[in-house]
User: Fold this.
Amino acid sequence: MTEPLTDKDRKVAGKAGKSSEKEKSAFGEFVTTILVAVAIAVGFRTVAYEPFNIPSGSMYPTLLYGDYLLVSKFSYGYSRHSFPWSAGPFSGRILSSPIERGDVAVFKWPGDNRTDYIKRIVGLPGDTVETIGGALYINGEPVEREQVDDFIHPDTGDRYKSYQETLPNGVTYRTLDCRVQSAQQSCFDGVGDNRGPFVVPEGHFFAMGDNRDGSQDSRYPLRRDRMGRVNGVGYIPIENLVGRADVLFFSTCGAECNAPLWKPWNWPGAMRFDRFFDVID
Assistant:
């Protein structure tokens, strides 16, 4: 026969029930907070800014390996590639804004529509673009180019011939021609120094890296080799543009300065503090 509950038993059971309800409520609030935070972060990355890091030297001297950027999504409007994993629910672009010559843009590589590339837009739809002897020509006219002081890489000490280019719309930036051993050494024509002419189709753009002898870009048409691998870049569909690189917020030379992730004691010396919060031209 079951013994009847005493008043003490009832009080203990009541307290246990209330404690369980409080724990469930606290856990529910924690989960809700996490979900709201994730939603805000995803929303911010989708419609405002997304961070990117530079994994190669194709944009030397403007961007260095180990630079971290904020890319504005709203600058060009939105496509399916504005969303995480390119999972946007529509095709084409909405709320689009003009893409200008000289913009440093992040886009999805047309070879797989997944891999992020960053290059400078030099050709607009309808333009004829070519390189002759390393010089850039747009619509048959040479882009203004003046040799300036050699660029010396701040981490490796490598020396490159450097030029200042000015596009027809007045955007000015530095490019590299080749790596040299001395200021007197001449540059030899690289494989990308004589390419084209290319006529940029409607709805597409022509992009090049500032490190002209170290960049896979629109000078190399998209094609499949004998092994079935896709190479080159070709023209950039407007839908593939992710955003414009606006601000460099952090920079580290990392492994190039013997400061990989597993050597945190070397991290402070690897920071390029002079590049923090630079505006990208």
Observations:
- Residues 7-47 form the longest helix (41 residues).
- The two ends are 86 Å apart (CA to CA).
